[in-house]
Amino acid sequence: MEPAEQPPLRLLVCVNRRFGRDRPSCAARGSEKLLAALAPMLAALDPPIAAFPAPCQGRCSRGVTLRLLPTGRLVLDNDPRQPEAAIARLLSPPEGD
Ligand code: FES
Questions:
Q1: What is the SS3 assignment for 81?
Q2: The domain that contains 46 carries what CATH number?
Q3: pLDDT digit string (tens) for 23-75?
């Protein structure tokens, strides 16, 4: 019997922008820039991870918010200036975010 094939990994990057003062959002923190940096880096992994823009993930004050599928694991507090750190956090065991 062959081992079960793992479903492909996908990363949702919240690119939601909430307008108005005192309304933090991932887009305001630079999530589009992070997505642009992450996409080719994740595509080069083995196995590759496809990155997609996503709507609000409900953790606006802890953005930039990333959600790894198919597990649904959230990785919070990502800095768009540090895509390598975001990838290291994605690939490490959950911290209990
Ligand atoms: S704006 Fe990104 S989680 Fe809400």
A1: coil
A2: 3.40.30.10
A3: 999 999 999 999 999 999 999 999 999 999 999 999 999 999 999 999 999 99
Residue-number span of the structural domain to which 48 is assigned: 14-91
Q: Is residue 59 part of a domain?
A: yes
Interval between CA 64 and ligand 1 midpoint (Å): 7
Show the ligand 1 pocket: residues with CB < 6 angstroms. 14, 16, 18, 25-26, 56-60, 63, 65
pLDDT of residue 2: 63
For the chain, what is the largest distance between any 2 Cα atoms, rounded to a whole number of angstroms? Answer: 58
Is 23 within the bounds of a domain? Answer: yes
Instruction: State if pTM tops 0.85.
Output: yes
Q: Element (H or E) spanning 69, and its range?
A: strand 66-69
- Would you say residue 80 lies in a domain? yes
Q: How many domains does the chain have?
A: 1
H or E stretch covering 35:
helix 31-43
